[in-house]
Amino acid sequence: AQSHAVREQIRDTFIKIRTMILVRGDSVLQSDLDQEKLRLQREEDLYKQEMMHLESDLTNLEMTVEDLRANVINRKVRVNMFDVENMALVLTKSSKTIADLKLKFPMLHDGIKMLLSCEMDKVIREEKFLKEEPDRLENVLRR
Hints:
This protein is mainly α.
């Protein structure tokens, strides 16, 4: 009887220690995860902002080229070299932006996948707890 009580006390102490470690470890991990989540959100927002600006620049360039083409065909207007140089600058800037975005995307992709994986692991642990805990409570009640 005494050895059983000692075992129960050791088991209770072990559970308390484990709970404390998990709570403190999860809070540190959670804050790291939250920080990573915020960093990724900022990176994603910047990426989307750059992409929207790029698409806007390209749309404006396409409209300018189409207007210029229509003027040349319909009105027999000569092409101004200054306009062509400005369009070339916009195209060069857009090409550089595309190259930068192509470099940023894989890192953003990997970061988001890692974050999703961590969050899915947490959801799975919580679902498992919710599924198994009623049975554990019933078993304890029967004892």
